[in-house]
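User: For my dataset I need records formatted as: sequence, then structure tokens, nothing else. Please produce one.
Assistant:
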Amino acid sequence: MKKILLSVLPLVAFSATSGKTESRTVSGRVTDRDTGQGLPGVTVLQKGTTNGVSTNSDGTFTLTVPASGGTLVFSSVGFLPVEQAIGDQNQFTIGLSADSRQLSEVVVTGYGQQQERREISGAIATIKSSEFKD
């Protein structure tokens, strides 16, 4: 019995380590394609997963991804999303283009819900799109 146990034990240990997925770290910077300035708060997400981060104040990010394969999706409100295959790259520089579609109205409440403007009973502040750009 001891011989069988000793011969099976290395196989079990090897199979436990071979199931571990190798990973690596990628980083980069996301900029506004028109101005070249870094974009804070851009979501960088590994496509098909919940693995992601947001860019910091100067548009840089660092993310741990699988060692091979995958695609990164870069998205932010007011910009067109960009998909980039990871491949063997470790450094990314992505430029996002402004989305020409205009939002008619966005209502932000402190309740974590979306509501129509006419349904809100509290105080409402309005910001025009020209003021928002400034």
